[in-house]
Sequence to fold (322 residues):
Amino acid sequence: MKRPKRPRSTVPASRPVSAARRPLPPRRAKSPGPPPRALPPVPKPRADTASLVPAAHTSLADVIDNLLNRGVVLNADVILALADVDLVYLRLSALLCAADRIMPPRP
Amino acid sequence: MSRVYVFALTSRRASPFTVQGHRIQFIEIDHVFVAVERRVTAPALSEKELRIQHAIVTAIFRRVEDLLPVRFGTWMDRHELSEVVVARKAGILDALDLVRGRVQMTLRFSSALSQSPEQKSPARGSESGTAYLEARRAAHRDLPCSIGEAREAVRDLVVAERIGRGSEALAGAVYHLISRVDVRRYRAVTRPFQSPVLTVTGPWPPFAFAPEPWP
Fold:
């Protein structure tokens, strides 16, 4: 025998009165400390943002100018060995960039 | 040890995405979001890798309102990355405030073509080395006339400016930070000044206006 289907409501049931009147548990006190720096509200990126930046057909001059202008970080691992015995390990991280990006211009 | 390749910093998280086979994710470090890719090696310096990085940074820029690109080759472990971001957080947030909602436009000029005869470097061998270098410095101190006119024309649109001096072999550039909504106007204003000597490109992510978190 088939059970009759109950009509389903798309409206969520309200909380029982007893639960609604129940007082909320006390909040835990926050630990003291400097408040995090508040960031200003940022609007969502607009639809025309995507069309602003040309994705393809970027010239090599632009790529080099944009990326290498800030310099390049070169990483290297060096192992000094003697008679097949590794003695010294060097991890090198070198920055290669124009001097005026690091040092203030001379008067 | 978990090492990541760092592309850029931003103040808002975006969903992970893939560009040319590279999976970009956002790590939160003390309210700053770092766009990274987990890699076992840093990319080699080549035209192909430069183009890929440029495409990735541009793709990130389309998804956020503020972006600080990081140097090519910045590959480091997570702990080191956290230390750097925390130590320089104030400067990073100030720079993010500056670039939020803005883009970079570039006025590129060829020094060799645009210098007047008296600005051009003296012939080698005619003077001492010191005099030669002094003349080179003087020549590069003064920007070409057309650049000056173009800079004056866009003065109202420009929020920040940085000048990269060129040389006889390399083009120089003036980088302008402008609002995203002013790009069309900027292009229209600078169109009359465009020539073989002076070209206008952009908009780009603010490459020239990112601070140096890794000195």
